[in-house]
Design goal:
- The complex is a heterodimer.
- By secondary structure, chain A is α/β, with parallel strands linked by helices.
- Helix content of chain A is 38%, strand content 14%.
- Chain A has one domain: 3-Layer(aba) Sandwich (Rossmann fold), CATH 3.40.50.
- Chain A has a 5-stranded parallel beta sheet with strand order 2-1-3-4-5.
- By secondary structure, chain B is of the alpha+beta class.
- The radius of gyration of chain B is 64 Å and the shape is elongated.
- The chains are: A alpha/beta, B alpha+beta.
């Protein structure tokens, strides 16, 4: 099904990057607020709906996860591997958004089941271009929706 | 007596005939003079008349021979003297006389104008005991006539003897000189007889071994010197009897010290092939032997050191390569990590310009703008640094790459830029295949062609030429432009990281050519530039030509 207002969960340990991202997402026209997790443990808790994240209206399951690789505690690869091991999450879109453009990282990410790999742009202009493109792309894409769950536009 | 002179029937001799007649007349010995071929007597003296018991008149005018036939006068002798003009002498035993009597006839030719005209005859009477004395006297008399000839012959002989003596003296000197030289030789020179007993022992031998000649002579050489051969002694004897022999042996000196010598032996044989003498020549090589040993040892040690050094170099190189790789990894991760705060700086300063411009003074906006620009440039630097370290760190696999495809790919990436500046790009000739890593080659040519488009004087339409050239086993790709050109001093410098000759006038970080060089180096190629300032540059890269057998590489699946 098509999604009108995709929900994005950004996983990034950098406060600055997250703040910039939030502003740029709003500028690009995202309706749903950017959801945020600051490290690997947080994103796993978010996806499980555990602890602080048990309120699904406040912390809805995302349309796509934008996952940084280089993070403390659990890094992006570990998070990605965990997600793909969860039966209900194995079809979740996970886009890597990393500063690394090393072939090794890219290959490893795809091997672990990444849906896409984006390199963090260096300037605000490029970041704006990226988020605009991302929104347009997500609006054109069809997504798998799990049984018994309602997507936000169906509500 | 003058009247007797008149008795000559023949004309008197032209040269001093008077003197001759007078000699004969007064001579105490019997004498006569005969004339002509028939030997007619023209003069006899008183002694002659007494000897034959006849009167002078009985002789004169008669042939000499007929008168003295009974006395054994030698007629043929008279003929010979008259014919040859040479004086002669003859002794004849008188028949019927006892004890024996000998008459010795001595005859001289009488010469007139170099022609014999007669013969002067003298007779000496002698008993047997006197015969030899007389003969001697006669010989002396005759000899005196030949004296000058003998003197001449003697002089000649003397001269010959002098020459011979001089030669012998010279030879003698030469021989003694040679003998002295043999002694001067620092080599030991020893002559042995057939029983190997020492016959000659020079000063060199004395000096080397310590025995004086009188101690050494007569001793058996090998026993005295305690010779140790490399072959068994018996075998050696056989060996040296065959021919000349030379080799290394050891001897023991008088003081017991051992010496290594280079020996040369020559056997001298007589006509029957038996050993007549053996010449031995020994050179002390103990020192050179030691030196040789030391040298060999030093060489071995040197080889060991060289090996150790080589190992060390290999180790250090490996360490250096490892640390270089570590360093590049650090540079990579640093460049990577530095980009994060930079993104924030750039993002927020840009945000400041965009959203808070009304709240900022003009100066404040300018500051924010400068922060934004600097952050952007620094990000470009870090980005290029990452590209550079990636080029040097990434795995490179060489395959057969189509230059045509690569050039097409590069040009399509640059198409937007080419259109914007209305540049003219010319690709001429054929594009062979090369051994390369395709992504790296694309990156390299992208930088070169990008530079060719970028570095032109304002208002000049960029003309860029791309062509390939086959060289021995390799392909050279030229990227030519009509741009600024590079002064010779900077033609090497430009390949270093972050070198920008025209800072501020043209965009970029100065990493492009460093990436080009690193990429080409990783692919085992070469890169260079030919340029004249103000007239453009011709950059080239050279890569190995792809082997024809590689064209049909199997495709997977």
């Amino acid at each position: 099904m098509l999604v009108e207002d995709p929900i994005v969960l950004l996983v990034d340990d950098s406060e600055d990057d997250a703040t910039l991202m939030r502003i740029v997402f709003a500028r690009a026209g995202f309706v749903a607020p950017l959801q945020l997790a600051r490290n690997g443990e947080e994103v796993i808790a978010y996806l499980k709906g555990a602890g602080d994240y048990d309120d699904r209206t406040k912390f809805p399951l995302p349309t796509v996860v934008l996952l940084d690789l280089n993070m403390p505690r659990k890094n992006g690869f570990e998070v990605l591997a965990w997600i793909r091991q969860q039966p209900e999450l194995r079809r979740l879109l996970v886009y890597i958004l990393s500063a690394s453009s090393q072939t090794d990282d890219i290959q490893r990410a795809y091997d672990l089941g990444a849906s896409s790999y984006l390199v963090k742009p260096g300037t605000l202009d490029e970041l704006t271009t990226l988020t605009q493109g991302l929104l347009a792309w997500l609006k054109l894409s069809h997504f798998y929706v799990r049984e018994g769950e309602t997507s936000n536009d169906a509500a | 007596m003058a009247s007797k002179v008149l008795l000559f029937t023949a004309p008197p001799p032209a040269s001093q005939p008077g003197l001759r007649l007078s000699i004969v007349e007064h001579a105490p010995l019997p004498m006569a003079i005969v004339e002509g071929a028939r030997h007619i007597v023209c003069q006899v003296n008183a002694a002659f008349c007494r000897l034959l018991n006849r009167t002078r008149e009985e002789f004169i005018g008669k042939p000499f021979y007929s008168l003295l036939q009974e006395q054994g006068a030698p007629g043929d002798l008279l003929d010979r003297v008259y014919r040859t003009g040479q004086p002669e002498s003859h002794t004849a035993e008188q028949p019927f006389e006892r004890p024996a009597l000998f008459w010795t006839y001595t005859m001289w030719p009488v010469m007139e104008q170099d022609q014999p005209v007669g013969v002067m005859i003298q007779v000496t009477v002698a008993t047997e005991s006197l015969k030899h004395t007389i003969a001697m006297n006669e010989a002396l008399v005759l000899g005196s006539v030949h004296q000058h000839e003998l003197t001449a012959a003697g002089d000649k002989l003397n001269a010959l003897l002098r020459v011979e003596i001089a030669e012998r003296t010279k030879m003698q000197q030469l021989l003694s000189e040679k003998a002295r030289l043999l002694d001067l030789s620092t080599d030991a020179i020893v002559v042995l007889d057939c029983e190997h007993k020492i016959q000659y022992w020079n000063q060199g031998a004395e000096k080397l071994y310590g025995w004086a000649p009188e101690e050494a002579l007569g001793k058996v050489s090998d026993e005295l010197l305690k010779t140790r051969y490399s072959l068994p002694s018996e075998q050696m004897r056989e060996a040296i009897y065959q021919d000349r022999w030379s080799g290394e042996i050891t001897h023991t000196k008088r003081d017991g010290q051992r010496v290594t010598v280079l020996a040369r032996k020559v056997v001298d044989r007589d006509k029957q092939g038996n050993v007549a003498a053996i010449l031995e020549n020994f050179t002390d090589i103990t020192e050179s032997k030691k030196a040789e040993e030391a040298l060999r040892e030093a060489r071995t040690r040197l080889a060991e050191y060289a090996g150790q050094l080589e190992g060390l170099v290999t180790l250090r190189t490996a360490e250096l390569t490892a640390s270089n790789q570590q360093l590049e990894a650090i540079v990579y991760s640093m460049a990577h990590d530095l980009r994060a705060p930079l993104r924030a700086m750039q993002g927020f300063s840009a945000m400041l310009v965009d959203e808070a411009s009304t709240a900022l003074s003009e100066a404040g906006q300018d500051y924010a703008h400068r922060i934004d620009q600097s952050a952007q440039f620094m990000d470009a630097l870090l980005s290029d640094l990452l590209a550079y370290t990636r080029t040097s760190q990434q795995r490179i696999e060489l395959t057969t790459v189509s230059l045509e495809k690569v050039v097409g790919s590069v040009l399509s990436r640059l198409q937007k830029e080419i259109d914007e500046i209305n540049a003219c790009v010319e690709c001429s000739g054929s594009w062979p295949e090369v051994r390369a890593h395709e992504p790296t080659l694309i990156q390299v040519l992208h930088h070169l062609a990008g530079n060719a488009l970028k570095f032109v004087r304002p208002g000049v339409v960029p003309l860029v030429g791309l062509r390939a050239e086959e060289r021995a086993g390799s392909i050279r790709v030229w990227v030519e432009d009509n741009g600024l050109g590079i002064a010779p001093d900077y033609q090497q410098q430009i390949f270093r990281l972050f070198i920008r000759l025209d800072r501020g006038k043209y965009p970029g970080t100065g990493a492009g050519l460093a990436i080009v060089q690193k990429g080409i180096e990783r692919m085992g190629g070469q890169v260079g530039v030919e340029s004249t300032l103000g007239q453009g540059s011709r950059f080239w890269i050279e890569l190995p030509q792809a082997m024809s057998t590689e064209r049909g590489e199997p495709h997977a699946g």
